[in-house]
M23 family metallopeptidase (Microbacterium jejuense), 456 residues
Amino acid sequence: MSENRQRPQLSRRALLTTGSLLAGAALVGLERPTRANAWPAGWPPDASDYAAVDRVAPPGFVQPFTAPIPRISSPYRSYRTCQCSNPHVGTDYNYDGIRGREFYSIGPGRVVAKGDASAMGYYIGIDHGDGVFSRYLHMDVPSALNIGDSVAAGTLIGYVGSRGAGAAHLHLEVCVNNGTQYQSPEVWLSNSPAVGEPAPTPVAERSFSINTAGTLEGKESALAPVVPLRENIAAVSADGLTVAAVDIWGGAWVLRGGFDTGWVGLASNAQDVAVDGDRFVVLHKDGNVMAKDGLFSSTWVPQIGGVSQIDAANGRIGVVAGGLLKVKEGTLFAEWTNQYGGVTDFALHGNRIGVVSGGAAYVKEGNLFDGWVPMAGAQRIELTSDRVGLLNGSSLDIKAGNLFEGWENVAPSASDFALSGNRIAVRSGGSVVVKTGALNAGWNGYFANSVKIALN
Ligand SMILES: [Zn+2]
């Protein structure tokens, strides 16, 4: 049941080998998928495709089981004790007695692969369209489905078995971007219901506050209740369905999925954390920055030392070291570029970088080497893809649209603020209010006794 009782399963390289097995003897007596109609080209992806992919399934996808969903015994990208250099490219569902349980297609589509292979057992691959594929391993008997069959979300694929594995479990893989990138199945299905259950309300617009007692509180929407999430918290960062928090002892923690999901330990001796999709950047108390791609990856990549401030967004990481803003984009091993000196605050969003230096704000848009556009006086800056927010004294001014639009005063007495999409959160004293939509929309009360705020 635990992964280390299984035979070494599929490393990326082993999957590639399996791919060639597919064209050979392993499919005796089975429909043999050909390269043309079976796997999408490039699936399994190669090593370079391990970039942060953290998408969530559109409405219409479901869990591979009816309720209750079996526990996840080995999450995506967890490391196997037996093959510790190889990430786990799928999600394993397992409990004592799971053998023979029905499992189902996670979405509508067409069967594009069916076979049997040494480390996979009987398996099925489904093309869901839009470049999304799923694959189901370890059946003891072949699925009744055949290549070319259409399936709906919730169509029976087969029964959980142990063929090609040490213990009975379902190994589910999800690939996106036309099958060129693995993606966490847990994240993909994090907002999808069990087969036969109604779809939950989408989790989209989360707001967070740390209160004066150190409690991290979250709120899913304007109408949702305030939910206490964790005690003794000093810093918070949120992106999509992921929230990361640093406690007063330096422990960094991650909660992914619903607010009732368990926290996962990320790092110790931390003073700040930034989340960008499946990427985690930690500023340690000694000023060193470490980053990793994948919550369960054990590969921390040292970034840089002497750092006082971090941010991460849309594949970029920014740090302030000795007052100098440095930004890299792409892999964790990319080169740093020097951006601006004397920086006291900065923000990253999409292809925008904003800095505050010498009491004034500047923003650049485009590649890392584009020019800076002067904004106005400020002490704090926040960005979205089409808004720039500046806090100057207690006055919050926002410009919407391009970098040359005019400013609108949105709040006259703000002590801090946050921007995300078309949302604006303002802390005024200890009260946090949020507006959604136009700059002149009305405010909704969100949190009390707040000392820090964040939006996902
Ligand atoms: Zn597995």
Remarks:
- Residues 12-22 form the longest helix (11 residues).
- The chain is about 5% helix and 45% strand.
